[in-house]
Amino acid sequence: MLPINLFAFHEGKIKILHLTWFAFFITFIMWFSQASLLPFIKQAFALTDSQVKALLILNVALTIPARILIGVLVDKFGPRLAYSLLLAISACFCFGYALADSFEMLALMRFLVGFVGAGFVIGIRLVSEWFPAKEVGFAEGIYGGWGNFGAAVASGVLPVLAAFYGGDNGWRWAVATTGFIALFYSVVFYTFARNTPKGSHYFRPKKLGGLEITSRFDFWFYLIMTAPLIGCLYLLAWRLSPAGTKLLSETATYCAYAAVTLLGIYQYSQILKVNKDIFKREVPAIQRYKFKQVAVLDLAYLASFGSEIAVVSMLPLYFMTMFGITAVQAGLMAGCFTVANLIARPAGGLFSDKFGRKKVLGVTLVGQAIGYLLLSQINASWWIGWAVAATLVCSLSVQAACGAVYSVVPLVQRRMTGQIAGMVGAYGNVGSVIFLTLLTFLSPHLFFTVLAGVSAVTFVAAQFLSEPKGHMAEVLEDGTVQLIEVE
After folding, report:
1. Could you tell me if 96 and 66 lie in one domain?
2. 207 found inside a domain
3. Farthest-apart Cα atoms in the chain, separation
4. Are residues 87 and 125 in the same domain?
5. Rounded Cα–Cα distance for residues 91 and 246 (Å)
6. How far apart are CA 229 and CA 61, in angstroms?
7. What's the rounded Cα separation, in Å, for the pair 369 and 365?
8. Is residue 292 part of a domain?
9. Domain boundary among 150, 171, 202
């Protein structure tokens, strides 16, 4: 039996859950609109293969820093305002994308549309405010899994919508339609959503700019874990350079490197600004948390969600080449990977609530490793049904691991849930960029083997996760300490 009644719309927390997952659902339709409409766009602009690859890279480039930024803003200003503004601003970017009349304009607007990928972070904080610890894993799984389904809906509906509008501009009207929906829903969300249940306190971080760290060792650990986020942006700039997709000139590439460098310097300066007092006085024991919790979740989401995005991007072509089937048939086979989100991600959260978060995360990572090993063994002699079954086994484990990760995120430190969710989510995008880059150098079989190895290594890292137990302490504005249950 499920721990919550998803049809009890009279309950405030259920209403908030449905409002929030649908907001995330819309963001994913907007974010993944390009993939489903790419054949139309490629034809309209006569794009080269290099330009298509550049658009795919740009689709995720802004999401990494955006998730960090949105995590800070949602903790400060609250998810109600943050989600409403994100939907409205992203709608404007969608309109710009639909109106693009050159490849340069198309590329710029696609880069900006990637901002909508940060929406996921906002809902994590909002759902955690409304559900107790014993239900939060399942609730976050519903939010993430049902919202992620927007990618599958975009894939199936937007091409039909473009064909319905017809003509050379059908794809433009399809993209603009997603923008109109987002703009309308931004008003709906702001009207009906609330940051917390009535009478509850919304905890905010004492300082903005970086996570508040509670020990000197964790401060240095945090600096180390921030480096891959900056490094991934360098990698993205390189992939857009003359050595990669050739979107940027040599001069523009150096400017991009300089911009990333300045961003890195700024981020590290903000971390130091927020945490400089850690070297002057110790944080009371009751107010401490272990940054290793965040680090383990970063790596787990890199391995799970990061690999999911990479695999979804390559599976259709892989199946077409392997079995000699049509693009439609290959798309349906590959669709197993995203459709599983509806069930597997909530299941990962539900099992985490019931059987222990550390245990379930470990089991799902092992299942993920086995699943990728199965996919690495597929060859043309396989019955196609076995290939579908292997895909389902793998996808169920991957989505469940994502659900298990975000069952822990809200239980680390309440006032910084947005920032923690932002960092963990950004690591997911780092994983997708790294894995997609590796795919350009490896055969599909070796690629899946590498993913299995990464999953196995992450399982080892997950053993350092501490099971959330007891209470977390938050300090109110008047200096009193409030304990929040995390079991």
Report:
1. yes
2. no
3. 69
4. yes
5. 29
6. 11
7. 6
8. no
9. 202
In contact, 293 and 406? CB cutoff 8 Å:
no
- Please say which residue of 255, 282, 309 terminates a domain: 282
Alpha-carbon separation of residue 365 from 102, 153, 303, 396, 454 (angstroms): 44, 27, 8, 11, 10
Query: The domain containing residue 418 runs over which residues?
Result: 300-487
| Structural domain count, the chain | 3
DSSP-assigned beta bridge partners for residue 482: 474
Residues 368 and 425 both lie in one domain? yes
Express each pLDDT in 88-137 by its tens digit.
Answer: 999 999 999 999 999 999 999 999 999 999 999 999 999 999 998 889 99
> What CATH number does the domain containing 412 carry?
1.20.1250.20
Alpha carbons 371 and 453: distance in angstroms, whole number: 11
* Assigned domain for 288 exists: no
**10 Cα distance to chain centroid:** 30
How far is residue 283's CA from residue 293's CA, in Å, rounded to a whole number? Answer: 18
Same domain for 233 and 103? no
Residues 388-422: pLDDT tens digits? 888 888 999 999 999 999 999 999 988 899 999 99
User: Is 289 a member of any domain?
Assistant: no
**Number of C-alpha atoms within 13 angstroms, CB side, residue 406?**
38
For residues 41 and 475, give the distance between their C-alpha atoms in angstroms, rounded to a whole number: 52
Question: Quick one: tokens of 102?
Answer: 């050159």
275 and 309 fall within a common domain: no
- The answer on 318 and 251 residing in a single domain is no
pLDDT level of residue 3 (50, 70, 90 thresholds): confident
- In degrees, rounded to 5, the angle at the alpha carbon of residue 204 between the alpha carbons of residues 406 and 261 is 75
Predicted local confidence at residue 149, as pLDDT: 86
- Residue whose token pair is 């460098």: 261
